[in-house]
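Fold this sequence, please.
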Amino acid sequence: MHYYITPEDYEKAKKNGINENLLYTRVYYNNWSIDRAINTPVQRHNPKIYEWLQVARKNGIKDTTYYARVRRGWSPERAATRPTVDIRDKNWLDKQRKKSIKKTRVYPDWVHDNLKKYNISHNVFWQRVNKHGWSLKDASTYPTMKRGQRRYGSNENHAWRHDEQARYARTQSYKK
C-alpha cells in the first residue's frame, strides 16, 4: 500500500534523527508504514568495528573478509589481525585435514599406521571388522589378495583349471 508523506511527517522524522532520503526509502521501497518509518531509530554501528577495519586494511585483509569474520562471531581485533590463508596452499590444507582426521578417528593410531604399511583401504578394513568380525590386529595387518588370487594356493590349483586342461586335451586329440 502506498502512502503520501506529508511535510509534517518529514519534520517528525527529522526530530527523531531520520533524514528525508531514509524516510522515503523506508516508506516507498521497504513498504513500511509511515509511523514505523518515523519512529524506528536509525541503527548505529559499533565504532570499534570501523577502527579495527583500518587495521585489517593495513594487514592486507579485504573488507568483505573482515566483515564476514565479525558476522561469524569473531572479535573485531581477531578478525583484523588473523592473516588470511590462500586455499590453494596445499601444505596448509593438508595440515588442516590431518588435524580434523585425528580428532574424528575411531580406531587407534597404530591401526591407521598398519593400514598404510600394508596398503589396506579403509573400506576393506571396515568390512573386515564390522561385517566379518575380524580383530583389529588381523584386519589391519592381513594383506589384501589380488584379483583372481585364492586364499590358499594359487589360481592354477583351482578345480576349474583341471577341467579346462582336460577339455583342451580332448579337443586336441580329436584334431589328430
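The radius of gyration is 36 Å. Residues 123 and 141 are 14 Å apart (CA to CA).
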